[in-house]
Amino acid sequence: MRRLLSIAAGVAVVAGLTGLVLTRPQHVDPAELDGIAPDLVRGETVFFAAGCASCHSAPNSEGEEKLVLAGGRRFETDFGTFIAPNISSDPEAGIGSWSALELADALIYGTGPAGQHYYPAFPYTTYTNMTPEDVVSLRAFLGTLPAASQESRAHEVGFPFNIRRSLGGWKLLYLEPGWVVDGDLDVQQQRGRYLVEALGHCAECHTPRDGLGGLSRDQWLTGAPNPSGKGRIPGLTTNHLDWSEADIAEYLKSGFTPDYDSAGGEMAEVIENTSRLSDEDRLAIAAYLKVVPVPANDATTD
Q1: Is there a contact between 38 and 140 (Cβ–Cβ < 8 Å)?
Q2: What pLDDT digit, counting tens, does each position of 153-193 carry?
Q3: Please, are residues 98 and 139 in contact by the beta-carbon 8 Å criterion?
Q4: Phi, psi (rounded to 5 degrees) for 272
Q5: Burial bucket for residue 61 (CB in 10 Å: 0-12, 13-18, 19+)
Q6: DSSP for 227-245?
Q7: Digit-coded pLDDT (tens) for 269-302
Q8: Could you tell me if 215 and 252 are in contact, meaning their C-beta atoms sit under 8 angstroms apart?
């Protein structure tokens, strides 16, 4: 019996150590950023395509106020309430003192400067596909925006979701770099894929999730329940959205549908961002949406 207990204890120790190794925060290899010169124009495009202000500007801010990334917006989920942090250029309250490498760690692996796991309310499962050039350029552009001294507030997350180490296990399941829509895409469609799958995080709202909060990639962009509990976020695959590419591009520019309705709610904020993109980029998004496969088990239409 004593020997069995010793064996069991040894197995438990090995399992625990293995778990610690597998769930440790990951970091970007510094060599990946070596020699990359930031491009502020490129960084501005990334900023709007990635929708940074939509989450990190202060609640109820409008116009130029949205460039002050003081944080404070609340996002209620089944796992707790997450409060967007200050990511302004303030070196103390914000991320003004961060290096491009530290930003890369956050965006690509969901890892903070102190080696902590970030919650996936921050959509790093999308940003993980960003290029090093875009990360470096975004870091430079963020440094040109106003500083805000407002301190970030702690998330309101209870047990067991407040155990951040467990997020390492979640990442093993869901932090999956690579494209959902693959195959023979032309240059325009590839650009659209990058804007949607690496920057725009459209899937975060328009794709259903499983019980652990991970995106159901086999139901990519087929629509999802609204987190508010009211209604459903529509699908973007061709069986849900039958607009022409020109109609989609116009909607992303002006917010007007082909029937002259207008975007409302959170989508209005998305349009504020996509309206700042080039006509070519909006058309690229539209071209990508036209080649997103319709899952065999999703015959519904909106």
Answers
A1: yes
A2: 999 988 877 788 889 989 999 998 999 999 899 999 999 99
A3: yes
A4: -55, -35
A5: middle
A6: TTSSSEEPP-STTT----H
A7: 999 999 999 999 999 999 999 999 999 887 566 5
A8: no
Handedness of CA 202, 205, 211, 217 (dihedral sign): negative
Entry pTM: 0.89
In angstroms, the first-to-last Cα distance of the chain is: 63
Q: How far, in whole angstroms, is CA 75 from its chain's centroid?
A: 14
Tokens, residue 62: 């409008």
pLDDT one-digit tens code per residue, 9-36 = 444 444 443 444 456 888 999 999 999 9
* Residues 239/299, Cβ–Cβ less than 8 Å: yes
Q: Which helix (H) or strand (E) holds 137?
A: helix 132-142
Cis peptide preceding 59, ω within 30 of 0: no
**Amino acid making up residue 194:** Y
The label of the residue with tokens 């080039």 reads: 278
